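User: quick one, sequence for these tokens?
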């Protein structure tokens, strides 16, 4: 039996943002250009900016999970080619970076 577990590693935030698809309740959006309504199970590139998706995150991870990793498992079953990242971590880091950039 296999399980999903968080693994932390150094990452290039800009590189992730340029290739990140963020999944909502039904569809996803592109973190690079903010295109909405993307079918995350089918689309490989953003229809608006053309970015190739390499990473995926979910806004609902943890909120709706009935078992550990249920949301991650569902998304990874549909998109095993993408690296799943924790949306809360991404949101926290980008928020801090945006604040630093604002006050420069």
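Assistant:
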């Amino acid at each position: 039996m296999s399980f999903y577990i968080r693994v932390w590693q150094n990452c290039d935030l800009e590189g992730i943002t340029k290739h990140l698809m963020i999944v909502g309740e039904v569809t996803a959006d592109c973190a690079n250009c903010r295109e909405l309504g993307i079918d995350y199970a089918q689309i490989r590139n953003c229809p608006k900016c053309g970015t190739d998706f390499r990473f995926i995150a979910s806004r609902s991870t943890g909120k709706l999970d009935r078992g550990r990793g249920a949301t991650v498992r569902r998304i990874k079953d549909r998109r095993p080619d993408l690296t799943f990242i924790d949306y809360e971590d991404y949101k926290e880091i980008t928020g801090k970076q945006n604040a630093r950039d604002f006050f420069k």
